Amino acid sequence: KAGVTQTPRYLIKTRGQQVTLSCSPISGHRSVSWYQQTPGQGLQFLFEYFSETQRNKGNFPGRFSGRQFSNSRSEMNVSTLELGDSALYLCASSLALGTTEAFFGQGTRLTVV
Amino acid sequence: KQEVTQIPAALSVPEGENLVLNCSFTDSAIYNLQWFRQDPGKGLTSLLLIQSSQREQTSGRLNASLDKSSGRSTLYIAASQPGDSATYLCAVSRNTGNQFYFGTGTGLTVIP
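Above: the input entities. Below: the structure tokens describing the complete assembly.
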């Protein structure tokens, strides 16, 4: 059974550029959530999607956005990149809402120079 | 706002020792609590999920307990092995969504 797949694994971008990260959840999973992990702030929630609808959003600026497609794949976009956006971005998928286990991908390491 | 704390921040033990990792949270109105491990530069691996109506879960050498009223969870690792060396994270979710609040983790080193 394939796990959560995140692409690309590594990215280097310049300040001011934009970037799109992709997450393919486990087959049959309909919930996808995104997290940012940095040494200083730890793991912080970005947003959560279920059946193509954003259910919750964390405390991040509007430069961070996301969407989910009908096949449950999700993308997140960061516009006007800043040095502080350098982080490991993790995606998690769950079968449904609430009581089910969350499975994480290997993450996308974004470096902004 | 939910605050999740993990103590200790780092732990070093000799191989074979039993150990306990602690997690506390400020808001007892949680839905799930999940323990993860993270190897350097990698994603999170799920270890155990405890639903709010449960008090403990076991998987192999791992046992996790949950006391919602006191806002605490413990992860017990029996007969530790060098392969157990990693950062262990606990996370709690609220309402019916999958938004997790994470602790800062405990870095475990098991010395052969």
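Note for the figure: Chain B touches chain A through 26 residues (CB under 8 Å).
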